[in-house]
Write a structure and sequence with these properties.
By secondary structure, the chain is of the alpha/beta class. The protein contains eleven helices and six strands. Helix 2 packs parallel to helix 5, helix 6 packs across helix 9 and helix 8 crosses helix 9. It starts with a helix and ends in a 14-residue tail after the last strand.
């Protein structure tokens, strides 16, 4: 039933072509990657950017057969800790467009936690709006980080986690814009729903930096949300998983 609803909502998405499509997901839900693959096939992008891939991994994807069942092993997918490559494989098979990797090194993300997103991002931080953050937005993002970590993080860690999130959002935006400038668009970004939010994540950074471009953000959810912060929402059945908060108890 939910899958049928998802397909109906996808068909109802705006018909006008967008320069950039941000496709959200819950990482471990296979249905979400099927929906993303459907979107990629329909959009026929000039490039696909993956949150999950480093630039070196992206180069390996581009040098190999997208339908090779060993592609995940070739690029070292599992070593990075993402869910089974098999559930992402339909996205890779949906297009032969160049793939770009947007993943940041762990040390770089940790540096943002201990300093700030602006310091680590470097040149262009002011342009991306990383040098300032309102108290209201910081409070909202800290609450989001607390919930995402099952309210198990010490309060003093939350500001650093927010800086890491802001760094990754801005970096994903920058990588997506690089792909657009190098290939002419449209460009697809594959990322988690938290990075696909139009109010304070990747779409907001892209719009801030390049207001000349059109951006469409798709949130693929497991539970319907009132006023979900996306341009279009798809709802699927939830994935079967253990309690994600069990590890924090």
């Amino acid at each position: 039933m939910r899958t049928a609803l998802a397909l109906m909502l996808w068909i109802a998405a705006p018909a006008v072509a967008q320069d950039i499509h941000v496709l959200g997901e819950v990482h471990d839900n296979p249905l979400h990657h099927i929906e993303q693959a459907n979107q990629v096939a329909a959009i026929a992008p000039s490039a696909i950017v993956f949150e999950m891939l480093t630039p070196d991994q992206a180069a390996l994807v581009n040098a190999n057969d997208r339908n090779d069942p060993n592609l995940g092993t070739i690029i070292g997918w599992e070593e990075a800790g993402w869910p089974d490559f098999a559930i992402y494989a339909p996205i890779f098979a949906a297009s032969d467009a160049p793939v770009y990797g947007a993943a940041l090194p762990r040390d770089t993300v940790i540096a943002a936690i201990t300093s700030s997103a602006a310091d680590v991002f470097g040149e262009g931080a002011d342009r991306y709006g990383l040098s300032t953050l309102s108290d209201d937005l910081r409070t909202a993002m800290e609450a989001e980080q607390a919930e995402a970590h099952c309210d198990a993080l010490p309060a003093e860690m939350l500001p650093g986690m927010v800086e890491a999130q802001r760094l990754r959002d801005a970096h994903f935006a920058r990588a997506t814009l690089t792909a657009y400038d190098e290939t002419g668009g449209p460009v697809v970004l594959i990322t988690g729903n938290g990075h696909a939010r139009i109010d304070r994540a990747v779409p907001a950074y892209i719009t801030r930096v390049r207001p000349d471009l059109t951006v469409h953000a798709l949130g693929i959810l497991e539970i319907p949300e009132d006023d979900a912060p996306f341009d279009t929402v798809i709802v699927t059945a939830p994935a079967e998983r253990d309690d994600p908060c069990a590890a924090f108890r």
